């Protein structure tokens, strides 16, 4: 079976600056791969290339074996690729439930406004049902992150059957950024459920190794746009070239 995601020679230059530099990586079905690397290493730029927000200057992106390098983001989403953004992206004056309903309608779900139960079920999967009628602007950072995950899962309401639905491959760009320490545990549990219980493949940027230890099968380390190392969290932490890349920064 082809890997869910396969990157080869993936590069992105802006003017004379090469920001993503010849990334080759395969992610297998059901795998959880963490992407770490110092600030400015090119992690978000890599996610932009994979999700189609930017076009590579060289190389290819394959999803389930098919070359999707030329597809726009919405066509990739339809093929099962979803992503969240590094900065929170909720609408402050819309309620939590309205976010899910809107995303479900955008994915083609009919009568979703009346389907309060379906919306609630999606919110329960990210442990946010208790805030269904609250405005998103008043949520804690952790709850905003959960809402972003609910929005990713919302297309499930457009499906005729009751399969988990939503993206099979999730790209999460620093979902813990800005989240208070006491909320990190529950958010980690939600992400773990999306991966382990629902079987989704996850690619997640995260700086904190302690969070990744119980979550990631494999860690990919970026540095100056290149892939410096990949391996288990323990192997990567023990790798001297990785430690060198992080000189002056916390690993
Ligand atoms: N549109 C752009 N034009 C020019 N340079 C860019 C652009 N986007 C990103 N860069 C540069 O590319 C480099 C990598 O940025 P990127 O945001 O991908 O890093 P990152 O690894 O996600 O960093 P962080 O950990 O801070 O989120 C940085 O030096 C950044 O300034
Ligand atoms: Mg980034």
TrEMBL record:
Query: SUPFAM superfamilies given for it?
Result: P-loop containing nucleoside triphosphate hydrolases (SSF52540)
Q: Taking every annotated instance into account, which residue ranges of this chain make up the domain ABC transporter?
A: 5-249
Q: Pfam families, from UniProt?
A: ABC_tran (PF00005), BCA_ABC_TP_C (PF12399)
- This protein's source sits in the domain of life called Bacteria
- Any idea which UniProt keywords this protein has? ATP-binding, Nucleotide-binding, Transport
Keyword Chloroplast in record: no
Q: Which GO terms describe its cellular component?
A: plasma membrane
- Per UniProt, what is one GO molecular function of this protein? ATP binding
**SMART domains, from UniProt?**
AAA
Supply the PROSITE patterns for this chain: ABC_TRANSPORTER_1, ABC_TRANSPORTER_2
> Which protein is depicted?
Amino acid/amide ABC transporter ATP-binding protein 1, HAAT family
């Amino acid at each position: 079976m082809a890997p869910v995601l396969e990157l080869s020679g993936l590069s992105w230059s802006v003017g004379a600056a090469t920001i993503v530099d010849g990334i080759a990586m395969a992610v297998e079905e059901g795998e959880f791969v963490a992407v770490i690397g110092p600030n400015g290493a090119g992690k978000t730029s890599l996610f932009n290339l994979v999700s189609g927000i930017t076009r590579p200057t060289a190389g290819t992106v394959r999803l389930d074996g098919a070359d999707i390098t030329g597809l726009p983001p919405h066509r990739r989403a339809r093929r099962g690729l979803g992503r969240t953004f590094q900065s929170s992206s909720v609408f402050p004056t819309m309620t939590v439930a309205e976010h899910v309903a809107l995303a479900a309608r955008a994915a083609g779900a009919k009568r979703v406004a009346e389907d309060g139960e379906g919306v609630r079920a999606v919110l329960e999967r990210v442990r946010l049902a208790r805030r269904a009628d609250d405005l998103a602007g008043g949520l804690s950072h952790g709850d905003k992150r959960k809402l972003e995950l609910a929005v990713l899962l919302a297309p499930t309401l457009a499906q005729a059957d009751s399969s988990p639905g939503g993206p099979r491959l999730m790209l999460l760009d620093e979902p813990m950024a800005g989240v208070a320490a006491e909320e990190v545990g529950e958010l980690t549990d939600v992400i773990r459920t999306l991966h382990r219980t629902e079987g989704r493949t996850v690619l997640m940027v995260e700086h904190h190794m302690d969070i990744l230890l119980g979550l990631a099968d494999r860690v990919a380390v970026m540095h100056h746009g290149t892939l410096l190392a990949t391996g288990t969290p323990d192997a990567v932490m023990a790798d001297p070239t990785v430690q060198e890349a992080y000189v002056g920064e916390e690993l």
